[in-house]
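Thread title: Can someone regenerate the structure for this chain?

I was given the following input by a collaborator and told the matching structure tokens would be attached. They weren't. Posting the sequence so someone can regenerate them.
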Amino acid sequence: MSKQKKEFFLVRWFKRCVLGSRDELPLEEEEKIQTPMRAMVQSFLHKPLAMIGLTVFIAIFIFVLIGPKFWPLDLSDQDASLVNLPPSSNMMKVPDELLKAGVADISSGNTYGLGVDENGKLYIWGHTKITDKIDMADFPEKLKTEKVVSVAAGTDHAVAITEDGEVVVWGNTRLQQDKFGSDMKKAMKEGGDAWDVVQLEASNQFSAIVTSDGNLYLWGNGNMSDVKVKSDYDGQIAKVALTENAYIALLKDGTVAYTGAKGKNSPLSKIPAALEGKTVVDIASTSKSVAAITEDGQIVVWGNATKGEAQVPELTARPVHLYGGRYHYTALLENGDVVSWGNNKYHQIDVPASVHAADNIERIFVSNYQNYALGSDGKLYTWGLKGFTLGTDSLGRDMLTRIVNGGRVTMTVGAISVIIATILGVLLGGLAGYFGGHMDIIIMRVAEVVGGLPFIPFAMILSAVIGSRLDPTQRMYLIMVVLGVLSWVPTCRLVRAQILAQREMEYVTAAKAMGIREGTIVFRHILPNVISLLIVSMTLDFATCMLTESTLSYLGFGIPLPTPTWGNLLNGANNSIVIQQYWWQWVFPALIFGVCTICINLIGDGLRDALDPKALER
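Best answer:
Regenerated them for you:
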């Protein structure tokens, strides 16, 4: 095809499909080239609303069809640290002012980041509201006026140390996150080496400080965490690594010890044999595990490493520093390379190629799901969780993932239900319409009984009685069968009516005269002449079955959680708190479901008009 012809074809296609215009042909020429199917297609293509509906529906269908490959569903997935988060993508959006002034320190919580520049100014970014009433962006006045030298972000609180050595805590302080021990207050008052802070850490409702004289100070929720230090280790601690509710210490002599009061009750207290007789140069921790680097470059992991934290990759050089997130570790190697391993749900171990290419990485800051690598030139590299496009639900699950996978389930249920209903309707309607007599009476009486059943209450009772004995997958199949078996009556009546009219046509009489079998006449000669109306009926029934499945799920009698559908996603948002405060949990499922059903109905209306002979009259 020449370039000119291609351009002409594209212009005609654009005018026909987008603008709704059509090229007029002489009547004789148009009648010569048009077949009934072509006339139907042209009529449909010239209906703007139907074309818009078709385009949008195809886009949604492709989205839910291939979407699970990019957003795979894990039915066991939940994370209490990421519940009810609004749509965002700014969890690693470091302020430009911080980068221009020079990064002195960075620490991140679950959804927000804290940074201190070289001038001691404090910055914050990301989703800063940890509860409905507590916003981490509300700094204490002291931090706005005084120079900050170090900062640490915990799960629900943050800690900062000012230039004069004062410790400032803000966020959730209802569980003693800001209550310092007497020994810590004494050291703060003495100053000097007794309060020369070399490390500041914060975890889940408790915090820690290590001073240059080898003392460790812990404070916070002692009921949940081990916040005590055995006196035998006073003055010996060089570094500490905090897990979710415990800690491990690196001593000044290069050994690792569990210095807490829980002792043998903690899985961290069982120091691996691989560390015996070796000098440890660095330690780090995740939520439930700890790791150590030995002087010869070996990385040893112990504790509850259930997310792949113990699967240390092959390293190209000796590791010199180790950092831990919630379920992953990041190591800085001697040759300047950076390696991450562990859980990769939010791409927190996908180190960018730009980091590998850079040979000047000096410091790394690792939080629960984010990583920050700082080069000697002041350039900052980031990788990990940026946010959630459609937010999260009350269990910390990604709404986009659940909407995509829920749409596939809802559409599958609707499609299979329509197929079952159409097969039953065509079979019974064809037999009743063609043979008539007693067969017609029996089939139509059965149709009246089925059609007279109160659909939603009957489906709810059947699902409640039988569905309680089935697993989620079997219950999904049950919903498909129930919807199909209870939805065939309108199709049966439509086919019966059409066949009653078609069986008196001349081509049927001719087929009988030729000795063709009755079943062949019904299903190979008459049925193709009513297939156009069946297509319209199936299209509209598809939307109806989707709505019915979602109604059952919304009422709690459909496909049960944790398997998502658009219906039970809306059911999960069926309370006033969610509707008022967590709008994204119901707006997005309702929006995509509503748009999908409207588009299907627009397609059905367009097909009905296109297949109507009167609509094609000039």
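Residues 147 and 164 are 8 Å apart (CA to CA).
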